[in-house]
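During the second year of the project, the team shifted from modelling isolated chains to modelling whole assemblies. The rationale, set out in the original proposal, was that interfaces cannot be judged from single-chain predictions alone. As a representative example for this report, we include one of the complexes processed in the last quarter. Its constituent sequences, exactly as entered into the pipeline, are reproduced here:
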Amino acid sequence: MSLCRQSFLLLRRSVVQNVCFRVTETRNIKRWVSPTLKELKRRRDKIGPEPEKPRSSFLEWNYEAEIYAFGKRLGEEFDKKLLKQALIQREYANMQEFKAKEQVIVPLINFQEFPVSKETLSNTFKAVVAVLKRSKDLNRAQIFVKDFVLSQMNGKDVYELWDPQNPYEYLTTLLNEKGITEIEPRLCNQSAVNTILANFQVGLYSNRKLLGIGWGENIKIAKETAALDAIQRIYKDYVPK
Amino acid sequence: MSNKHLFLIPGFIRTPLQNGVGRYVGQLQRVVLKFCKNNGSSRGMREFIESGLVNFANENPGVVVYLKPRRHRTAVIKAEYLNGDSQWINCRNFTQEEVLKWLILLKSQSKNATGTRIKKLWHTDHPSIQGPWTPYTFRDPELNLVEFPNDILSKPAIMERSSQDELIELFNNKKIEELESKRAE
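Output from the structure prediction step:
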């Protein structure tokens, strides 16, 4: 093999010597590729990441169409003029006014918040609801809020949002209003008592009917969890009017 | 080959922000159809734009459709979703029916789902309605009246015979046999 290569090189050399202008092309590993890519990567890293651009700065952007589609997507009919007004931030409006007055200040012109902060988003949502109220009526706006905000509560545990401090007392007052005065907490089950994994189950009864049942590492906590369960059972069939 | 060797992100079917509980909002925000005006590979896309696009836009007023002609480049659909995802589909040599099919898929999706492996075809946040098993579920009501310490309940529930017991029994049996044989004599 090596002998073969030697002969090949000799042959090529003789060709080069004979025809001096001919460029011999060889198929081998291109050694410039890796250093070039590395250099490009180094320069790219040096500049840092590209700033994120708002979608509105793209070539394919039609504000009118976007506004139209916004209303259609949400299934609402907005007053176009009011909606546009609602989507303008106060800072941006001030800036535009400023720009109109003094056209010299160039660097300030491009100031616009991007990416949008949570506060701006929440303000804009409120503004959109207000626009809906003005362009339709209050009822429509209420349905809108119900569909988009209140539906977020779906599937959530009530006690994640509400943490009553004394559930047992709360339950007693609640039941007193309903005319039930006697609540009887009973120890239903217990296991591993006097160990670190002690476990009690307490049920709350009234007139031999179970109101709620709960677990806990001691009887007091079990009673409170039972009260929480009872509160939930009372409101199980509650339908808002 | 196991799932570990597929370079796909595992996930479940999910709906963003309780979509559909109050009302349904189509999650496709805008779509950009990029095509060439004279290249053959964009022919199907051009035909779709001529015949089917207006229909599609009418049916889906919530989707903003942009057209972007560009010379001698492959036809492409770029979709942008409400969650900020964007999806890019190469439409080289597609027929107009194929273009429409892809658009319908994009319209019905809620995000760019390429590269995800759906673990199951259903998903629930509450896999058990009954709740987890505890030592108190399905407990025998007889146990309510038992007084402890109790002789029967203090024993193990399943008592297997040990090999020693079996040996003793064998020995006893043999003794009896011997006795009986003696009697017979």
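The mean pLDDT of chain B is 91. Strands of chain B lie at 9-11, 28-35, 64-69, 76-81, 86-90, 116-118.
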